Amino acid sequence: MLKWEEYIMGKYKEVLFMKIIICANEQELDRKAAEELANHIRRNPDTVVGLATGGTPVGMYKQLIDMHKNEGLDFSRAITFNLDEYVGIPYDHPCSYHAYMNDNLFDHVNISRDNINIPDGLSESLEQACTEYEEKIKSVGGIDIQILGIGHNGHIGFNEPGTPFDSITSVVELTASTREANSRFFDSIDDVPTHAVSMGIKTIMHAKKIVLLAKGADKADAMAKALYGPVTTDVPASVLQLHPNVTVFVDEGAGSKFPTK
Ligand code: PGA
Fold it and tell me: Could you confirm whether 152 is annotated as catalytic?
């Protein structure tokens, strides 16, 4: 059993180590985060990477594409698992996370299509698809490095406040605030799906390394609570305090509410 699992069972009280890197601006964050991931792939070409969507990692993906084109960063053996996908949106819909990943990374690097995994939000049996997703992650030996963004409400993946820390991949209902935040990608808020398939918090916590990214002053509250507040299901990202290998990249805005020494 991992230490964080003992913690949530009340057996372990110590908060573990986190490396926090405050970047001068978004470009520096994109570059440093891409470098972190690229280093893993260079050291171990068979790396199993957990990928995130949303506005935050777009710049990091651009950097990775540049590294592929200019420095030969090789994705051919990497295996990827995305955190989440909306339920009920066709994969060629521009707002689906399948389309996002193709547009922002996969169409521009030499990743093998067979090595790409994204939750299936169109399955006739969503629960079975979730079980199979968990099994697939296990079958490749687990995720080596997981990229995460954070929601304004502290969510990671689509694990909204109140999600138990031992959750695994499942169908989740999106909160009003998440649908509102993501409505910027859709024509109207009514078009934003109400449900998604998301890796669970336990799935995420089983990654060997986690890289959390946050940009902008609007994420400052969520980040301060996640990193320095109590570990609570009210702030799903606070569980990361219990993971033994987390690196956090924030710009000055997102880090502006961290306590000063
Ligand atoms: P964002 O989303 O990168 O679009 O801000 C992050 C998240 O909701 O996890």
Answer: no
